[in-house]
Design a protein that fits this description.
single chain, alpha+beta, 3 domains, eight-stranded antiparallel β-sheet
Length: 524
């Protein structure tokens, strides 16, 4: 039978119960976390900035305090758990650090921020060990809710909400005319905007539901079932809320729910739904887990015989594993630096003569943070065509091409309203490319906009592919030059196909010149 060396046994026992050794580990952990937060302060402050400006993710402010409270309420559990350095944490820190680097290179805030929390978890794991992380798995994992994630759900959930409203209102005997997110019923007009999507309710429900499940259940199956319910219930509840608001406005001749008061009704309804969910869930509540009795365990990291010098060596390795990525990013950024953006000349074509932009409707896409803009107009055979380019270089948070705030048309645009979208095929750069089409209407007429991203010489309409192309270009030291390219044309009702044909002809005739212009601009 294997026997533990007396010295090793004393070391293991010390790791479990020696207050001085535990205080030292906790002090080392606190100092390491402070260093980590300072070293990656840009990523941390990028998250805080989103919490500040977006109500959807304002819950991010309370995640860390709740996590600390969850650990504190289980502080007695640590007395029976060995504390030791762990190689697993170092591996996690390295993997998360590589993901952070890729996220920064691709300007994908969500990846960088999830990786930031991943590195933090890896650091805690490396310093405190697997046993501690297992004991406090939920409070540590709860930190991932700090990451503002889920904005990509807005369009899909707006579509779902719109379809449900149309179906439910018609089922109630009220006729509906729908054009995009605009709904017209006999008593007035309604528009489904981002606030109607239910994403805000969904995010809040997932966070609160996960916390409730952890505090009230011990069974993993029950916890998962309650979290699933916390995802499904708010989606259906939001559909009912939106339908109820439309019907309340209709039945009251728009005296109720037609203004800001419908937001109050929405949150009150959401609160009732969540309380009902908690009340139902409380029927299966389980007793709280008791703290284990303190016993001696073998260490999980450097081994029972590891001494103080060995542990501090492991700490140094862990800090290096999560700290090396910032300097590496700075090095890669320097490889692709360019000066100010200077647009190259765009060659004309016989079929399209330069024209005054005043011939086009007054419209600007909702893009910001670009280094330069290009706007021009041409007169075609039957209508004017506009070209807009938002050019990005030396991108950073808030000044990047792919950003949730950058859109061809925002849902609350005061002039234009989206009516339809599509994916036309265009001949460009010697190949067929898929662009994005958006149709919009205002009090003065209609317009169709075709758009695509140009990233390092490649065309795409996918945010994800654009990020991949951007990361590859920066890894090759080619810089991060990229652009949002839009061509647009006005039309009157009934001339949609003619306007689309004009844009197709414009891209075919001017495409080579456009590609050459962008390539020359990126080389300057």
């Amino acid at each position: 039978m294997h026997s533990l060396h007396p010295g090793s046994a004393r070391q293991a026992a010390a790791d479990v119960g020696d207050p001085a050794a535990r205080r030292l580990h906790l002090l080392v952990l606190a100092a390491s976390l402070l260093w980590f937060a300072f070293w990656y302060r840009d990523t941390l402050m990028a998250m805080v900035d989103i919490w500040e400006r977006s109500d959807t993710f304002a819950h991010g402010y309370v995640i860390a305090p709740i996590s600390v409270w969850l650990i504190w309420r289980r502080r007695h559990f640590i007395h029976g758990v060995p504390i030791a350095s762990s190689l697993i944490g170092i591996v996690i820190g390295l993997g998360a650090g590589a993901a952070w680097l890729l996220g920064e290179l691709a300007s994908v805030d969500a990846v960088s921020q999830f990786a930031f929390v991943g590195m933090l978890v890896g650091l805690v794991w490396a310093v405190m060990g697997t046993a501690v992380v297992r004991t406090y798995a939920f409070p540590i994992g709860f930190l991932f809710f700090m990451v503002p994630f889920g904005e990509f759900l807005f369009p899909t959930m707006m579509d779902w909400t719109t379809h449900f409203i149309i179906w439910a209102v018609r089922a109630s005997g009220v006729p509906v005319y729908a054009e995009g997110y605009n709904l017209v019923i006999p008593s007035g007009r309604w528009q489904v905007v981002e606030g109607c999507s239910g994403v805000r309710y969904l995010m809040a429900s997932i966070v609160v539901g996960s916390l409730y499940a952890y505090l009230n259940y011990r069974s993993t199956q029950k916890r998962l079932l309650f979290v699933v319910a916390s995802i499904i219930v708010p989606i259906f509840a939001n559909w009912l809320r939106a339908y109820g608001i439309v019907m309340l406005g209709h039945l009251s001749s728009n005296k109720l729910a037609a203004g800001a008061d419908h937001l109050v009704y929405g949150w009150v309804f959401f609160g009732i739904i969540i309380m009902a969910l908690f009340w139902i869930g409380s029927r299966w509540q389980e007793d709280e887990e008791l703290a284990p009795v303190s016993t001696s365990h073998a260490l999980d990291g450097t081994g029972p015989e590891a001494g103080t010098s060995s542990r501090f060596a492991m700490l140094a390795v862990a800090l290096a594993a999560v700290s090396l990525w910032n300097p590496l990013l700075a090095y890669l950024d320097r490889q692709g630096e360019h000066g100010p953006v200077q647009f190259a000349q765009l060659a004309s074509h016989a079929n399209f003569a330069p024209a005054d932009v005043a011939l086009l409707p007054v419209w600007s896409p909702s893009y910001s943070g670009m280094r330069s803009e290009y706007r021009a107009a041409w007169s075609g055979a039957d209508r004017p065509v506009g070209l807009y380019i938002a050019y990005y270089r030396d991108q950073k948070p808030g000044e990047e091409l792919i950003n949730s705030e950058n859109r061809v048309l925002i849902s609350k645009d005061p002039v234009w309203t989206r009516t339809a979208s599509g994916s036309p095929l265009v001949k460009l750069d010697g190949d067929e490319q898929t662009w994005a089409s958006l149709e919009m209407v205002s009090a003065h007429g209609r317009m169709i906009v075709w758009s695509a991203y140009w990233v390092g010489g490649r065309w795409t309409t996918s945010d994800y592919l654009a990020k991949v192309y951007l990361a590859l270009a920066k890894l090759r030291g080619e810089g991060d030059d990229s652009a949002a390219v839009m061509v647009y044309a006005p039309y009157v009702e009934g001339e949609h196909d003619a306007a689309a044909t004009t844009l197709e002809r414009f891209v075919a005739d001017m495409g080579d010149s456009l590609v050459a212009m962008l390539a020359l601009t990126s080389a300057r």
